[in-house]
Structure formats: C-alpha cells, structure tokens
Amino acid sequence: MIKLTKRQEEILQIVKKEGPISGKEIADKLSLKRATLRPDLAILTMAGNLEARTKVGYTYKEGASAVPFMTISEQFVREYKGHPVVVRNSSSVYDAIVQIFLKDVGAIYVVNDDNHLVGVISRKDLLRASMGTQDLRDIPVNVIMTRMPNIITIKLEDTLHTAAKRMIEHHIDSLPVVQEINKVSHTYKVVGRITKTTIAKAYMELSKCYTV
Ligand code: ADP
C-alpha cells in the first residue's frame, strides 16, 4: 500500500479548498519555502492528484489513487539547484575562505569580469594553499583554482541522476549549474549549484511517499 506523507496530505487539503493556487501560496500557508515543496508538488502532479497549469496554479483532481514510482532520473536540476557562491578571479585566497565560512558551502565558483565561469575552489584547494608560508591575502584565487576547461558542469535541463553520476565519476562534491554562452570557447554563466547533499535530500523526499 502506498501512503502519502503528512505534508503531501496537507498540500492536497489546501488545493482542494483553495485551488487554483500557486506553489508559492501553498508554501506560504505551510510556512515553508517554495523550493522545499517542489518534490511534493512534482509527486502529486505525476500521481494525478494535482493538475499544474501555467499562470493558473494547482487544482485538485478527484479520483487519483496511487503515487507512481519516481526516481531521481525523473527529477531535473532546474527544480533542485541551490544558489551558487561566486567570487571574482582577482579575489584573494583569504577572501575565498571567508566566503566559504560565511555562506556555509564546500566550494565556490570563480568568475571573470564578464561574469563567466573560470574556476572552482574547494576546501582542499584552500587547505593546500594555507600550508605554504605566503600571506593568504596576497595569493589570488586564480593561482590555486581548478580552471576551465577542466570544470565539470551540469545544465538546468539535466536530471539529478546525471548530476549524481558526474560527481561520483569525477570524485567531486559539487557541480556548478551553467547556461552555455559559447561551447567552443568554454564560456558559461553560473546559475546555480548541485551538491551531493542536494541528491541525498531529493532521495529522502522522494522515498518518503513509499513509506507505509
Ligand atoms: P573538497 O576539497 O571539499 O573535498 P571536492 O572533492 O569537490 O571538495 O574537490 C576536490 C578537487 O576537485 C579540488 O581540487 C577542486 O578544485 C576540484 N573540483 C571541485 N568541484 C569541481 C568541478 N565541478 N569541476 C572540476 N573540478 C572540481
């Protein structure tokens, strides 16, 4: 037997009573972020309990019974991406360390003056740089970063499955989500990030609806 989570039941009750209603309005009623509700809304829509219409919102559909089996292969980066933390290539290693702590992330992305992705710096890169004797304020990030064209990226239209596979294959913890500007010259704009935690959270959200 397949059972909906408490939150999914709450969403259905809200839409039943107040639909058509936007995802943002549902999130506000539950005092949650829109992004937190995305997997639930995706599941309920796929299952046929809700109908999603652009510019109208969600409406309740009678008669839907079961939740179909959903995996991360059916979930898209666009829906799950987080905010990227970005620094300029003229920033120092010291600045990068401050940003890593302030924004509570494991890696930051380096952009040039045109805001195009030129590098990635992770915790290990920063630790390596801090083993030397040079003042970290005097080392620019572009000396220690992993640079283009060696950066492994992911696109909005890719699936979480592709993202997970890419991180495992390349032994890295995160991927910048990019929009391609020019493939030949490796010019990309950073629009988000996907981490191993993103994948773990999506997995937990998706598996909740199979709990009996
Ligand atoms: P940590 O250093 O916290 O263990 P990672 O395992 O992600 O983080 O990073 C390991 C190495 O891989 C670092 O040198 C980093 O610059 C590089 N790296 C991290 N993310 C990427 C990426 N998306 N593409 C290419 N290299 C990356």
From TrEMBL:
SUPFAM superfamilies: CBS-domain pair, Winged helix' DNA-binding domain. The keyword Protease does not apply. Residues 76-136, 145-209 form the CBS domain. Keywords: CBS domain. InterPro entries: CBS_dom (IPR000644), CBS_dom_sf (IPR046342), Diverse_CBS-Domain (IPR051257), HTH_11 (IPR013196), UCP026546_HTH-CBS (IPR016842), WH-like_DNA-bd_sf (IPR036388), WH_DNA-bd_sf (IPR036390). This is Helix-turn-helix transcriptional regulator. It comes from Robertmurraya siralis.
